[in-house]
Amino acid sequence: MDKFRLLFQHFQTSSESVMNGICLLLAAVTVKLYSSFDFNCPCLARYNTLYGLGLLLTPPLALFLCGLLVNRQSVVMVEEWCRPEGHRRKDPGIIRYMCSSVLQRALAAPLVWILLALLDGKCFVCAFSNSVDPEKFLDFANMTPSQVQLFLAKVPCKEDELVRDNPARKAVSRYLRCLSQAIGWSITLLLIVVAFLARCLRPCFDQTVLLQRRYWSNYVDLEQKLFDETCCEHARDFAHRCVLHFFASMQSELRARGLRRDLVGEPPEALEDLEGGSGKAHLRAVCSRKQVDHLLSTWYNSKPPLDLAAPPGLQGAGLSHRAPMVAPGTDLSQHIDV
Q1: 116, 74 in Cβ contact below 8 A?
Q2: Which residue among 60, 71, 166, 218 sits deepest, i.e. has the most Cβ atoms within 10 Å of its Cβ?
Q3: pTM (two decimals)
Q4: Using one digit for the tens of pLDDT, what is the confidence trace for 43-53?
Q5: CA-CA distance, 164 to 137, in Å (whole number)?
Q6: Helix/strand/coil for 22
Q7: Do 234 and 240 touch, CB atoms closer than 8 A?
Q8: Cα(26)–Cα(70) distance, rounded to whole angstroms?
Q9: What would you report as the CA-atom Rg of the chain, rounded to the nearest whole angstrom?
Q10: For 47, which DSSP code?
């Protein structure tokens, strides 16, 4: 049980591990989908190629788009590319690194589908049965061109009466299936060789740039996550203070209806929510809708520079017009604008 807990915590804290896990899951789903798919070629000269190539290429395209959708870094990469430069310059190298990482994971499931389809051979036989040269087979010598085309269109349908138990059909099907498997194994070998060379030659190059790009790509992702978490924290705190202020302003009406409980009797944590103390002072200082909108606009249009030693005027530009913290007992209706 402890091992599973440690594994779960590792996946929780490592965004890269989560993406790798999703990539493997999509690949496993691809294998399951292909194994459960019932392939039936139309066996019509006009539609065989369209149907075969469609099943060979359309599902991989859909799987590729799904890989992009489930990968958080694809959204982060687009946001980083489209954002205004502001006080922080955009590094094309980081965007290229993120794009490479996203594409590598998104292409895993489509490649699995294509390789399975090629090794199985059904899609290939259906798509290219009409393209076979009849001169390579002696059984077509006594057929007219129209009969040859009709026969080749029926090759994928071994139960059809025209080609059932016909040696020519078996020869054409075997030829196309062997060609499909040869292409599939060639692509598999090529991918393995490329991965092997990339793995072996990678340490031979300078790792400084790679480490820098990996660091800053992770930084962009984590910064966005922390900003979203901080916004959620502020929104929750802001909503809580608005609700408490509403009930505090309704004291006279609650007293008339006999529903009032004196705030003095409330627990200490409820009183602290009306105060500006505690470790959330940087959040409580932003106490109007205009300020929140200004901060969000400033964050998007002019992100602060990545220099913690810079003067606070540059880093805190978005907070330069914030209102002072609300003192205990102050009427919050003067500060809260919703």
Answers
A1: no
A2: 71
A3: 0.73
A4: 888 899 999 99
A5: 17
A6: helix
A7: no
A8: 10
A9: 32
A10: T
